[in-house]
Specification:
By secondary structure, the chain is mainly alpha-helical. The chain contains eleven helices and two strands.
Amino acid sequence: MDAKKAPQPTWETVRYMISCIQYGGRITDDFDQLLMDTYAEKYFHQGVLQLNVELYRDERSGFSYRVPDTTEIDAFRAAVEGLPGQESPEIYGLHPNADLTFRTLQVQEGMATILDTMPKGAGGSSGLSREETVDRICEDLLSKTPVLFDKEDVRERLRKLAGGPTQPLTVHLRQELDRLNIVIKLTTTTLQNLRLAIAGTIALSGTLIESLDALFMARIPVEWLKKSWEAATLGNWFSGLLQRQDQLARWLTIGRPRAYWLTGFFNPQGFLTAMKQEVNRKHAADKWALDDVVMTSEVTHPPK
């Protein structure tokens, strides 16, 4: 369409230019792109050019968001200056909890900055320096860290499990053991190297400095998070390590449990797929396809 002859803007083109080209080229997440497209549909159409159109009204404050009926730049600047200093997420179609989440993260980042900039050289009220405190933490954690699963012992025990080592769930168990071994080895190595560095045996540099600061602040070292799971605190993370090791060790030594801690696996979806594969194999004579197996759940002990 010739823009000079068009009676009104071609809004579809305007929305595409804004949502997909000017901003869309910087968006990498599909849901963010969907949100941007929704904003474009909401705010770029013929209706916004009507006189005294109201874009949004805040029910709590009663403030009305309107497009100024003028062509003067000063009037638009005055309108912008008159906007509330604190706006509701509902203006952008978001749930009010979005503001709560934003402010929670803001406080957490602020507290983390304060803690990171605190003096760390002198001793605290307990008289212990940062290095002495971390050394005690490392000593305590090392005394509780489980040992690695021995590869030869694991291979022998997997053979003794029902169905042998080729059963889908047994294969899943082996994969989980391998991944947990990586986390245990990384944890043990980091704690041991920190104690050696504090004692002056090896140089304290690189990731060891970051790990030392994290343990002193009761945070999870970044290197551990890269290979493991999310947790709120160092204590929760370490408890998760012990619980995961206990679940896999019981499965390996005693046999399949009657119940599984699904979120305690590195790959819960792999566990569910292995379950479907085993059911599929039991009905091989019926020529069941894997997609024919459907999982259902039943509440056995509903709340009273």
